Structures are given as structure tokens and as C-alpha cells.
Amino acid sequence: MFPHRILADGDELGPPTVSSVLSLHFSWLALFLLLAAGLYLVGVAKLRKRGDRWPLRRTVLFLGPGLGSIAAVTVSGVEAYDDTLLSIHMIQHMVLSMIAPIFLALGAPVTLALRTLPRSPRAVLLTVIHSRVVKVLTFPLVAYGLFVVTPFALYFTGLYRLTMQYELVHELTHIHFIAVGCLFFWPLLGVDPLPGRWPYPGRALLMFLSTPFHTVLGLTIMQSKTLIGGDWYPSLGLTWVTPADDQQVAGGILWAGGEIVSVTMLAVLVVQWMMHAEKEARRIDRMLDREEARQAAAGTIPEGTANERTAEEQPTDEHAHRPAI
Length: 325
Fold this sequence. Notes:
Elements (H helix, E strand, L loop, with lengths): L17 H5 L5 H22 L6 H19 L3 H4 L4 H21 L2 H8 L2 H11 L2 H6 L2 H16 L3 H7 L1 H23 L10 H24 L8 H4 L7 H56 L4 H11 L3 H4 L5
Helix pairs in contact: 2-3, 2-6, 3-5, 5-11, 5-14, 9-11, 9-12, 10-11, 12-14
């Protein structure tokens, strides 16, 4: 039984309000978030001190919607309700597994670490990144399987009841949500160097295939006649909420929210794909220009190319014989 479910004066935890949701609740996870933010800022400061550039948007994305969204649902009043209302838990679940990992990936912390760590720790990090375990876990199909199977295994087995009864299991579930989300989104949207990254068409296809599963899971929860967590929610005896109605809301949140996030991230991936294509086209143009310059300096420009250039530079017959006005 979690101690925060009963207020200090012994009264029952009331329905969520603005003040109750915005209130702070200490969590060991807060220490981890502060440590991660501190290390990231130290890395950015180290780069700037030696005159290197680090995009401001990466810092903002990592600290704001990345770490910030995790804090918003784990050290705020949301944490006090996540084992009281399934709907609140579902919001927390989506933030930890879908929203936060996306922005953490866009913050490129691995790239930052590789550019700032001393030689020995950097070598260790590279060894870990290219290890067989990481290659298997970050392989898109493996990450996709974990991402899809995790919520079904949680909500339709006895595991969810355990997360309500034991705080350690509860906290480990939070970590699992974040880890699985990172494994799925990092290879798809992130910019960090990862082994076995798929080309953009494959990434877009996998992102598209992840969209329907939220609909299936949300509708399954909404239509289920069995309460998730068994008698956990009825046993709380809360007078201001009906567990069956709250489960309907929870399924709707997962359905609608999952669709919105998936479609938005698919759009982001397409934009990244277009930007990558433009960058690649510019790179090829520069390479061709350098090759032409080298051939021109050596006097070996292909005859056809030179003739085409000469023809383009000379006026056409129509312009050459046009009478002056």
C-alpha cells in the first residue's frame, strides 16, 4: 500500500485538482533526472569552452520535453494518482514510453558524450554501443516487438496488480517504460550513432506499423468487461470515481493519444528524411564540383562536357542575328 494514497490527516485522497496535480512528491527518480541534466549541461559547457558548437535546440529538447516530461509525471501530483486512477496511469505510461524517449533521442546525448568524454571512457562507450547486446536490442524489429508486447503483457496479466502492490515493482515499471521507448524511438528518430540503423523508408514503414497497435490496445481496454488490476481499484473504496468508467477513459486516452503521437512522429520522420535527401544531394554536388575542378586543373575535362559548357556560354543563333533595336 502506497503511503501517498492517504493524506497526512488520514483523509482519503480526493479527486485530482490543479493544486494537487502540481504539487511535488519526492522520488528517487528525481535524483537521476537531476544527475542526467547536470551531466548534459557539463558536456555542453565543455564543448563551448573549447570553441565547438552544440545546437541549442538539442539542449532544449533534451532538458525540456525530454527530462522535463519525465519529471512532470513522476515527481508531481500525477505520481500520487497513478495507482489510484487507471486514466492517470495511462497518461503517465504514454509520457514515459512515447513522449519523453522521442525528445531524449533528439537531444543526441550519446553524440555529446562521445565529443566530450576523455579517451578511455569514450572507448568504453563505443565498445558498449557496438556490443552484440546493444546491436540486438536496438535492432528495429526487436525494439518494435518489445514496444508492442510490453503494454499487453502488463495490463492483461497479473503483473499490473503487482505494480500496484509493491512500490519497487512500480518504479521498475517506470524504468522499463522509458527504456523500451528509447530502444524503439532512438534508432528511428535519433541522431546518435547506433549500429544497424535502417534507411529512412524502413524507418517510416516501422513507424507506420506502430500506429494501429495503440488503437487495438485502447479499444480492447475500453471494451473489456474485466477490470484491469482485478479488485485493486474497487478495494480503494473511492467515492468520487467508478473504476469501470475510469477504465473507459483510460482506453480512450491510449487510443487517441497514441494515434496523435504516432502520426506526429511519422511526420517528423518524413521531414528528417527530406532534409537528409537534400543534404545528400548537396554533398554529391560538391563532390562533382571538386572532381570537375580537379579535371580542369589537369586539363582532362571530358570533351563532351567542355562542348556542352561552350555551347551554353555562346549565344544562340536567334540571339546572334537578332537586329539591334
